[in-house]
Amino acid sequence: MKDTTPCTVTLARGGLYLSRQICERYFAGLETVILLWRGEDLWIMPVRHAAAGGYLLKRRNRLGDRLIHAPDFLREHGFDDLSEREFSVRWDDTHAALIAELANL
């Protein structure tokens, strides 16, 4: 079972910025994720096999922070012109997804 403690992800410049701690907690050993839009929620889901596709978890710095560069996906859902924003995410064990409720952004 994953830790369900709420944490924060940053949306800026066409990407989602995740801390090393988030990546270690929810995406340890993985290099790709899938982004899905479900209603008003953004789901970030782990991909176990890179051949399945998805977005790369690009390493940003020596600390191990990561970036999901997804300007096309974000633009498609109306998030192309936002200034930097932080939002809370929570892990959902039932769906094996990190979920951001974006209704208030």
Which labels suit this protein?
nine-stranded antiparallel β-sheet; 105 residues; 12% helix; mainly beta; 2 helices; At1g16640 B3 domain
Mean pLDDT: 87
User: What fraction of the residues are assigned to beta strands by DSSP?
Assistant: 35-45%
Outline, from the CA principal axes?
globular
Question: Helical percent range?
Answer: 10-25%
How many domains comprise the coordinates? 1
Q: What CATH architecture do you see?
A: Beta Barrel
Q: Provide the succession of SSEs.
A: EEHEEEEEHEE
Q: What is the end-to-end distance?
A: 29 Å
* CATH class category: Mainly Beta
Which residues form runs of ≥5 with pLDDT under 50?
A: none
What is the topological layout?
Blueprint: E1 7-12, E2 15-18, H1 20-26, E3 32-38, E4 41-47, E5 55-56, E6 58-59, E7 66-69, H2 71-76, E8 85-92, E9 97-101
Antiparallel strand pairs: 1-2, 1-8, 2-7, 3-4, 3-5, 4-9, 6-7, 8-9
Q: Could you describe the 3D structure shown?
A:
By secondary structure, the chain is mainly β. The protein has one domain (7-101): Beta Barrel (At1g16640 B3 domain), CATH 2.40.330. 12% of the residues lie in helices and 43% in strands. A 9-stranded antiparallel beta sheet has the order 5-3-4-9-8-1-2-7-6. The radius of gyration is 13 Å and the shape is globular.
Quickly describe the structure.
The chain has 105 residues and is mainly beta. 12% of the residues lie in helices and 43% in strands. The chain has helices at 20-26, 71-76; strands at residues 7-12, 15-18, 32-38, 41-47, 55-56, 58-59, 66-69, 85-92, 97-101.
